[in-house]
Amino acid sequence: MAEDTTGILAKFAATLTYDQLPERVRECTKGLLLDALTCAIAGHRGEETPQIAGLASAIARSRESSVLGGERSSLAGATLLNGYLITAVTMCDVYRPALTHITPEVVPPALAIAERDDASGRELLVALAVGMEVETRLGASLNYPAFRRRGWHGPGVIGPFGAAAAVGHLIGLKPDRMAAAFGLAGSQAAGTFAAWGTPTVKFHQCRGALSGLMAALLAQQGFVATQQFLTVPDGGLYAAYTEGAHPEAATEALGDRWELEQIALRLWPAGSSIQGMITAMFDLVEKHNLRAENVAQLRIFLDRSIAEMHGMFPHYRAKFEALLSAHYIAAAILHDQELTLDQFEPQRYDDPRPRRFAAERVKVLPDPRLSGVQSRVVVETPDGRVLSSLCLVPKGSPENPLSPAEIEGKFRRYAKGVLAPAKIDAAVEAVNHLEDLSSTRTLMDALRSE
Fold it and tell me: Which of 17, 194, 385, 419 minimizes the number of CB atoms within 10 Å of its CB?
């Protein structure tokens, strides 16, 4: 196997050991896992979740794998449904350099295989780190602006590689078989921004998880596939999906510098690209005790592309559009002084007061001085005052991270009423001490509602 980019990543994914994980990376991985579990449990409140559950049930009728916050399904069904659950209510992680969610693709198949094979918590921890690192490094190497100009959506394109790496590590693939798994993952890579504004954009995540699972399991059978998929000139990742890619970024300081540490989390449900706006909104609320009745006009300034994506829903329809609507989210914060999933239930988003406020008093505008997720919010009060807040680094970003206590608090908020109190405590304990867990099944037992 030639030691090109694919081969180097495959060797890393196949051979990484627990002792090679720095302590900070272990803790980061556990935080990402607990956040993903939180999102999955909350995902049962998603509008389309029953439809994906129906699809998962139709794939197979066996019940060997756990559904997070649910009961049991088949290996493929649980992978698909758990992947959707994590992203269903729009509050999971994001790797912003490639605008890609990572945990919906990596966590579900890793949990399913670890549960099936009775892997230890330590083995699961390493596999999760492997999958997240492979996927984020591919994201870093894409030349994302060129990738985005072609319309590609990261989770469906690079997600299968992260999933294949995690599963391949757990089932003991050797480097050459891991490289073949990457070839098989790449053969299933798909998903474009034509889906934006519809739930299909979330289907990319769970389909990426299932694609990676199939890729690793098929590679385990010795199925022949290219072992240089990333760099093949005719149809490889860097040739077909982008231009001006940086393959060296996928392998530079591999094992010394950890790209997974750049994954951001969300304290609040809503589009990942407007977390800066939300941070700025809460800054105004807290500093000025701001309420909806104190606002005559609200202007939200965003990067042009973000303004176009999230400024298109002043007259949002159902839950998913409300979760993407900068107009409604600003109105909800000002009316309720909080932003949880409760603000995205029909009885709240259909209330005529925030709906009218969103349509009539909120404007979303591009600002060429802003880039990425930066945001500036300007409020005009009825008495003529002008208040403003600039957010350069949203809450949850690597530079402004959620604390372990905030991640745990998020889990406990959304697990309440879904899991029994004893199971909530057991799940938190299992994740916090994952490396000491003798069997992943202990964690999975705590995460089922049955």
Answer: 17
